[in-house]
Design a protein that fits this description.
3 helices; single chain; mainly alpha; 88 residues; elongated
């Protein structure tokens, strides 16, 4: 079950990144420079990650990364607690 949730989260993050980078390219005047910045950012060659926002927009919904992380943490902590209670 945990692996399934991880896969869903991974796909959502990939989708949000794809939309973000597509919008970044569409709105840029120097597409070559922006393309190389994206490549360097995703390959880990850029230490200063100015292009990664704290909010992604997916299907007209804003996704705040800190809130998504906190919600995931709470869910899995509660899941562990409920599994412990059901065990005893």
């Amino acid at each position: 079950m945990y692996i399934g949730y991880c896969n869903v989260l991974r796909k959502e993050i990939q989708s949000a990144k794809q939309i973000y980078y597509s919008n970044l390219l569409l709105s840029s005047e120097n597409k070559t420079e922006v393309t190389w910045n994206i490549i360097n950012n995703e390959s880990g060659k850029v230490q200063n990650m100015n292009h990664t926002p704290s909010v992604f927009k997916l299907n007209n919904t804003n996704i705040h990364l800190d809130q998504a992380a906190e919600a995931s943490n709470k869910y899995f902590l509660n899941l562990v607690d409920s599994l412990k209670m059901n065990k005893y």
